[in-house]
Each structure stands twice: as structure tokens, then as C-alpha cells.
Design brief:
Keywords: Membrane, Transmembrane, Transmembrane helix. By secondary structure, the protein is mostly beta strands. Helices cover 13% and strands 40% of the residues. The chain folds into two domains: 33 residues; 324 residues, Jelly Rolls. It has three helices and 20 strands. The strands form four sheets. Strands 1, 2, 4, 5, 7, 15, 16, 17 and 20 form a nine-stranded antiparallel sheet that branches. The N and C termini lie far apart (80 Å).
Length: 366
Amino acid sequence: MNKVIVIGVIVALLIISILGFYFLIMHHNSSTTGSSQKSLTTDQEFYISESLKTVLGNGFSVEESNGSSSSAQLLFGTIGDPSFFVNYSYIYYIENGSGYIKIYPAGPSSYWGALPYDLGVMRIVPAKPFSAAALMMNSQDVYYTGGNYTVMLVGTFSNGSSEPAGLYNTPDYPADGFSVGMFITPVHNWINMSTKYTYERDNVGMKGWPATQTGEIFYPYSKTPYIIVQWEPFWYPPLSRDSWTTGEFNVWIVTPNFSGGVTYNNIKLLVGGGGNGYIHGLRRGDEILMQVTYDGYNNTIYAKVTDVNTSSVITLDLPLNSTFSVPSDGRYWTEVNAGTGASFWNWGLTFVSVMNNVYVNIEKVS
């Protein structure tokens, strides 16, 4: 009988220890993200559509259609009510613990200031010169099957400035927009609020150019090659002072070394100031819809940026040819980066999703 009691006590202590460790871990996870977690596990396409309708407003219709082997994942957005959904369990903050990335719930907030907006916003970078931060997102719920792989985001900015003209001769205009990284495979586990396992650099591949426009970008370490597509509004003429540019997109192919590390030499610039057209009438508080699609059927990048407030649209069609091989079917991570340079603005996000063979059509109806 004594042996039975002793064994029972030992088992009870083990259970208590395990439960205590579990609750400690759960408390740590919730405290590092700043609030309780929410997660969507079913009907992702429906939630993506509803979130887009909420973010874009009643003046737009959103319709979806699915191709073969379709899958989708809402990383975050606002869904039909004032609460600001954030899927913390899938997002890592790439920053040096500086507090750059900050969540402003729906409603009047210091992010919007005097602007008449109340959407929830995740600020990626503050209005601070030569700064950057990024979201590294576990988009592995989306299984790439060799077809169309799309990252869609809605972003904005509410304040910022440029260095005095006497210092950098920088026009007072928003820079440097958003960049999207696709098909990333981590080498190590990401560390929240850390820049470890990334390479930070601006103006890669633009040495000797009459003007260089990228701002700071984090290039993550990866086991697989990946694509970076940036919308850089500062290519807008005559700001860039480059008559040869055709648009506002920058595109890089990153081929990490044998251990997954990335340096300047592992990054190849394909397009700088490329694409078709420029966003006109960009103003504080404008919503920017950015869609980047990789088409594995023809190894081509298609990108589109729309200023939702003014309906100004720019596009990019870029065949990758031999510079990039079609990724293997599988699950990947996604990055969204925002950076600044001598012109610095508080870029923030209101919506991010990743989709495989899911097609979203957005039309203005009023």
C-alpha cells in the first residue's frame, strides 16, 4: 500500500510540473506578442473576403474564385467589427527590440492623428530616417502547387517627413513603401523581436546609379532561393530625377549560400524603377492595395499596386527566365518589410493574406 501511495504522489507531482511548465510557456508566448492570440483555421477564403470588405469599405465589391488545389491564409486584418485580428501564432517581428512594430486597435488612435480614419493598423516602421522592420510570417498553411502564388496586403501611412534639403536634398514625399518576400525556407527558428538570421541593406545592385531608391530592407536567411518585390513610391518623377525609369517597382532574386546565409553578393537586382506607370496623388491616410503573384506555369512575376483612394494603378509583368527556377511544391514563409531612408514615413498594414490558386477580384462600385 505504501508503494502505491508513493507512486501516486510521484505521478501527481509530475502532472503538476508538466502543467506548470505548460502554463509558463503559454504565458510567455502571450506576453511576447502583447495580447491574446486569435487564429483562423477554417473557411480562410471567406474570412479573407470579409476582411477585405471591412478594410476597403462599402465602395468596393470583393469576389473570389478557386482554382485546383487552392488554399489560403489570412495573416491578419479586421473582420466585420471593430476588433483588430492579428494571427500572432504565425508572425515574428524582425526588429532590434526597438518597438518599431506596434499595433493600434480600431478606433481613433495616435497613429491616425487628426486624419478621419479608425481602422486597426499594425505599424511596421515609425517615421524615423534610415530604419526598417519586417514581419516574418509562417504561411505554411498554404501549400504551393506550382501555379499562382499570391501575397496581398493593404497598407497605409499617416505622417512623415524628409531630411532638410540642405543635408540630402530630399524632396518631401513618401518613401520607401513595402517589399514582399516569397518562397522563404528558414534556416533556423526565428527569434521574435530580433534581426538574427537576416541581412539588412539598402540600394542593393544600384551602385553607380544616378539615383538609388530602396530604403532599408531585411533579406532573411533561407534554405531556398526567393523573390523580393518592392513598391517604391519615391521613383515617382520628378522626385527620382531619373528619366529612364518606367515605374515604381524594384525586384531582386536572392540565392543564399550553401548554409543559407545571405550577403550582398547573394542578391541580384532584376528591376529598379520598373513596371508600368506611377501612383499619382499619394496622400497621408491613403490605402495602398499591393498584390504580388508568382505564376509557376510561366515563371513570371505579376505585381499591381492601387491607391484605393484615388484609383491610381501601376503594374509589373516580369518573366524571370533563367534567373529563378520554379519552386518545388511545398510550404513556405512570407516576409513583408517596410523601410525608410532620408525620407521617412510611418508605414503600417491593415491586411495581409497568402493564397495558392485563389483569385480575388476587387471592383470599385461607388
